[in-house]
Design brief:
Length: 190
């Protein structure tokens, strides 16, 4: 699908602010995809559709989680975490995008997980570092991402965990698994 057509579809699903975020995620993801020699057309589509389900009603998302047999433990966490997994299914049923690599990158873009593919990491990090983001620690991730995307993912996971803990918020465990995996690989020389 052409970039223009894909952007038109998501524009209808999003607020203006979220649409502008999506365009910046797309541009960031395309730079990373070129650098890491990924299929830029596929990365482009994953970035454009990553927040496709973001503004669906939580009741509707809940039905998708049940009917699509997504992990039911998602329902114990904030609906903010539902739009990735639900979006990965919606783009197949509503738009006809059934590419497993694109769907998986959308599924995991908010929490991350262990054993992420390079493709999944690019979408996860592009969402985290796009130029509109200004949370504490984001520059550290921007500085390292073209040299060491594993370290970038570790730092993003650490920052998110620290932020959520400082607010006494529940934390979906896959982010801890990402943090532990990358810590083991990169920082203890294991
Ligand atoms: N493991 C997690 N557990 C709970 N909340 C999380 C976790 N990871 C991220 N979040 C929160 O989910 C929210 C949405 O994430 P965000 O990266 O803004 O997604 P997007 O912008 O693509 O919709 C943020 O408030 C973030 O702190």
């Amino acid at each position: 699908m052409e970039q223009k057509k894909a952007l038109k579809i998501v524009e209808k699903q999003l607020t203006k602010k979220r649409y502008d975020h999506t365009v910046r995620v797309m541009e960031t993801a395309l730079d990373l995809a070129a650098h890491y020699e990924l299929d830029t057309k596929k990365v482009e589509l994953a970035a454009i559709f990553h927040d496709y389900a973001k503004y669906r009603n939580p009741e509707e998302m809940k039905r998708w989680i049940i009917e699509e047999k997504l992990p039911q433990d998602l329902l114990d966490y904030h609906p903010e975490l539902w739009h990735g997994p639900v979006g990965s299914k919606m783009i197949e049923r509503e738009i006809g995008i059934g590419d497993p690599e694109i769907q998986s990158a959308i599924y995991w873009h908010t929490t991350g997980k262990r054993n992420m593919s390079l493709f999944e990491q690019v979408i996860f990090i592009a969402d985290y570092i796009e130029p509109g983001r200004d949370f504490p620690g984001v520059d550290e991730v921007r500085e390292v991402v073209y040299k060491d995307i594993d370290q970038a993912c570790w730092t993003a996971a650490r920052n998110t965990i620290q932020f959520l803990m400082s607010k006494n918020q529940p934390i979906y465990p896959d982010t801890f698994q990402l943090y532990n995996e990358k810590l083991g690989r990169n920082m203890n020389g294991r």
